[in-house]
Prior knowledge:
The chain has helices at residues 6-12, 33-36, 78-86, 149-156, 341-353, 648-655, 672-683, 702-722, 747-753, and strands at residues 48-63, 66-67, 96-97, 107-108, 110-117, 120-125, 130-145, 147-148, 169-170, 175-195, 198-226, 232-244, 261-275, 282-285, 288-291, 298-314, 318-330, 360-362, 365-368, 372-382, 385-394, 407-416, 420-423, 426-430, 434-438, 440-444, 447-453, 465-477, 690-694, 730-734, 756-760. The strands form five sheets. The protein has a 22-stranded antiparallel sheet that branches. It has a three-stranded mixed sheet with strand order 30-29-31. Strands 2-3 form a two-stranded antiparallel sheet. α6 runs antiparallel to α7 and α7 packs across α8 (702-722). The radius of gyration is 48 Å and the shape is flat. A hairpin with a 2-residue loop joins β26 (440-444) and β27 (447-453). It has three domains: 6-477, Porin; 494-557, no CATH class; 648-760, CATH 3.30.1330.60. By secondary structure, it is mainly beta.
Amino acid sequence: xxxxxxxxxLLLACYSVNAQQYLGVRNGNYAxxxxxxxxxxxxxxxxLSWDVNLGSGSVTFDNTFLYIPKDSLKFFGIGTIxxxxxxxxxxxxxIYTRFDPNDPNAKQYLTFSTEALGPSAFVSFAHRKHxxxxxxxARFYSVASEVPAHQAQQAYWxxxxxxxxxxxxxxxxxxxxxxxxFEYGIQYxxxxxxxxxxxLKGGAGIKYLQPSGGAYIKNVQGSYxxxxxxxxxxxxxxxxxxxxxxENWENINNYGDLIHGHxxxxxxxxxxxxxxxxxxxxxxxxxxxxxxxDKNPYVIKLGLALTDIGSIKLDEGASNFHLEAAQAxxxxxxxxxxxxxxxxxxxxxxxxxxxxxASFVNNDFKMGLPTSLNFTADWNFxxxxxxxxxxxxSFGHSSGQGVQRPSVYSLTPRYENxxxxxSIPFSLLAYQHLTPRLGVCVRAGYFFIGGDALGGLMAIxxxxxxxxxxxLHFFIPDHKLKDSxxxxxxxxxxxxxxxKGTCATHxxxxxxxxxxxxxxxxxxxNPGPVALKxxxxxxNDGLIDKRDSCPDDPGPIELNxxxxxxxxxxxxxxxxCPDVPGPKELRxxxxxxxxxxxxxxxxCPDDPGPKELNxxxxxxxxxxxxxxxxCPDVPGPKExNGCPFPPADQLSxxxxxxxFKTGSAIxxxxxxxxxxxxxxxxxxxxxxxxxxxxxxxxxxxxxxxNPLSERRAESVRDYLVKKGVPAANITTIGYGSKxxxxxxxxxxGRQKNxxxxxxxxx
Length: 762
């Protein structure tokens, strides 16, 4: 037999359980698989080759309603909490409430939480650029909000707080979401992009979820009146709730008896690192460059992740209900006895509907996961000292049911090395209001312990909440290769571990580094090839450097090792044209046309010309060399490519009467003589380019005039081509009515505008 009071149901609405943030340890570079639960990309390019979490867990309590004065705390608050658990009684005098009779509707929030990360691990591969991890865990959330102070007060007093008796008090807005589950996940992370000092990593994970229990209350409206210690009245009540049958927990024989459904969840994250100069975090060994595991490589690390995406369906031993009534009463509620959850549900249904089965809706419901967007910034500001900023922004579920974690905003200074770490997180916990918190975390080797809200436990302030976490994980950090003699060759590859050598000689001494060991080297301080017993021959011409007149350029022995590529008898270092044979008097440079300008400076090496024209001929003496002179035998200006310009006045007189009839592009026979004279002039200048322009008067539209002007220009061009003018020398263009030379208001003016003009091309 069980005895359940409505106050106990209401008390559940004052608690919310939220997964811990582990602010003091999760952002560290040695957090291992625990850090990946905040951002899965943290596994890639980690300092750890592999990590195994044997177990870690956390417990949190925080609230705005109950508190214990710091002066009455025992053993940093822990002893007081233990006593309260052992000797709990209604309204323990050591616990105070913040109930204000002048503000009975003030909203209250309380939190209590616990979670465990079970055996979990990750392993890195491909030079730690990729990692795969697996996780197991158990988590529980019971999230409530908008609890009016009068409801919290009566819940704490088990409905015996008499100053609130006899009055209708509103319960509008209360929401409760409770969910506990086991999870089994797999994650992958890898380096997506690297360039210079920049690195981008990405990671994702998926989890299979098995709920152990769940419940919700939502859409609460109405008011209640506790008339006395035995009778309660309800007015205009509306509420939806669902739950798993918790009696099942009393008959648990195996793991399967704990499970009430299934679901899926996932996470995705990215991390950007801005690296230090490579010399600050790398070392040379075995002729390769390695990351120094004892040094941090980044200046700043930024992470962004979306975690706990998904939902769980509870469909085994689950039910949901709806209660609604304009008025209802519950006499002698304190004396009620219930044999089961169902008995309690049916009693409520009878009270509100007069029917014990009317409140039932169905046998399954879904609950959303505590999705959050996580932003982290980690700054390595000095040696092993870091400053971390973390924002965990939670998302609600609107009108649906689902658990929601509080948002967290934190700033955490941290000292960190391979085997020891200490951090002091300053944080704000946001669940409808902001709660400031101070924490500390210490990691010694594989073990860590700490909390994000230790002020109450340390009697710094009244005990309103507490947060502690601890864990044990084994990891193998990346290690620096051992080099006993300090020669840059690791002991495992060093064939002379007590003598300094090089990686090229497998750690054996070779002072000049020529791979000829000192004992066999005839020039031990100057590197040389094995064939020359270690003596240098920089140009590899068969003569050792001390006998070579040109030690950096290979050459025949008869020229004392100096090269003469063109074989003209002038060695290359004195030959101004080392790849082309030439006489010694011209310092080895050829002059094919014999004009006194050597070929490499002669713009016309096969045709003799004066030096002032760089060796190029100019037959007509017009200053334009023959190879670019379009009229090489007739002098002309440079601006016309060496050709003379035609007389402008003669051309103008010959072309000014090429006129056309209205709307016509046909040349009248009376103009043939004019065009013949024009063709005769143009043929005198075969290298000259010409432009024939066509024009119209303003009669008609541009749509008619523009193509008409083009046809007039083309008619003139075709006639001139027939008279021997090269077609390639003539271009045409039509201007329509845009360029009149006379007024268009008279017939005479329009006649002049219907014309074609021939002009030299500029």
